[in-house]
Design a protein that fits this description.
This protein has helices at 2-10, 27-50, 57-64, 66-99, 102-117, 120-131, 136-143, 157-181, 185-193, 198-226, 230-235, 243-253, 257-286. The chain has 290 residues and is mostly helical. The protein has a single domain, classed as MetI-like (MetI-like fold). The protein is globular, with a radius of gyration of 25 Å. Residues 72-278 form the ABC transmembrane type-1 domain.
């Protein structure tokens, strides 16, 4: 009898008077957000409008220069290509993972996770070796007779796109797999029984139901690609600089925190705008309200 009373006393709920209520309950979370997010962004914003002189001169120079606009264009073009290619490859892989036997799916998942856990710098250097003019890819293409001379696959946006797509694939496969796995197979069977072809089941049933996962994965990949630094700096070149490299150059080489802050704030605004658009069109679906 005493044992039962002790167990019930241990599992008893916390008295309501001791629970944090009202504003005091969220003070720790707000403090954390303020210290690590709001304060740094505010400091960056201040430096972008105060250095080297007060005003919006940094933004005017950044958005009025053809050189800087080309860097913005490179960044958005590469990010868009990486997102599109990753989505095109990631959807079939996620669908295959959702329908294949559990043991085989576990092996594929282990490979995906292993690729994510491998050092990013090592993976990028590996792609440098594979993509160079004397690398394995060019040798294979020439050995098969598909090309007569090596293709320029490094120090350009082609190499950056290939390397970043490889790195970003797991980030789009995992959200898609989670969404596709929740789709009831009976829905596809019902569509087939009603006379829908395989193509119609794909385009009119599966794809619409997978849109939330596609949107979440595409947004994640696009935003991460906008701010990527290591892969573009190693596989790209000075003529194909991206925005993260420009920010690093402003801060490290030129010690121009004003321009660096302005470029970072522009990138932040673009990212937040994309997130708002994603919430506007897919927010209710992501929370289950289809």
């Amino acid at each position: 009898m005493s044992t039962y009373s002790d167990a019930s006393s241990v599992s008893a709920p916390v008295p309501r008077a001791l629970r944090p209520t009202g504003f005091s309950g969220i003070v720790p979370a707000l403090t954390f957000v303020a210290i690590f997010f709001i304060v740094p962004v505010a400091a960056l914003l201040l430096r972008s409008v105060l250095e080297p002189a007060p005003g919006f001169g940094n933004y005017a120079e950044l958005l009025g220069s053809a050189t800087y606009l080309k860097i913005f264009a490179n960044t958005f073009i590469v990010s868009g290509l990486v997102t599109t290619i990753s989505l095109s490859i990631g959807f079939p892989v996620a669908w295959a993972l959702a329908i294949m036997p559990g043991r085989l799916a576990s092996v594929i998942f282990a490979i995906l996770l292993l690729s994510m856990w491998t050092n990013l710098l090592a993976r990028t250097y590996a792609w440098m070796v594979l993509l160079q003019r004397t690398g394995l890819i060019n040798k294979m293409l020439m050995g098969m007779g598909l090309i007569n001379q090596p293709l320029p696959l490094v120090n350009n946006l082609t190499g950056v796109t290939i390397g970043m797509t490889y790195i970003m694939l797991p980030f789009i496969i995992l959200p898609l797999y989670g969404v596709i796995k929740k789709i009831d197979p009976a829905i596809l069977q019902a569509a087939a029984l009603c006379g829908a072809s395989r193509g119609q089941c794909l385009t009119r049933v599966l794809l619409p139901l997978a849109v939330p996962g596609m949107a979440a994965g595409a947004l994640m990949v696009f935003v991460m690609s906008l701010g990527y630094f290591v892969t573009p700096s190693l596989l790209g070149g000075t003529a194909n600089m991206m925005l993260a490299e420009l920010i690093a150059q402003f801060v490290q080489s030129l010690v121009n925190w004003g321009m660096g802050g302005a470029a970072a704030l522009v990138l932040l605004v673009v990212t937040l705008s994309l997130y708002v658009v994603q919430l506007r069109f897919f927010g209710s679906q992501n929370t289950g309200g289809r």
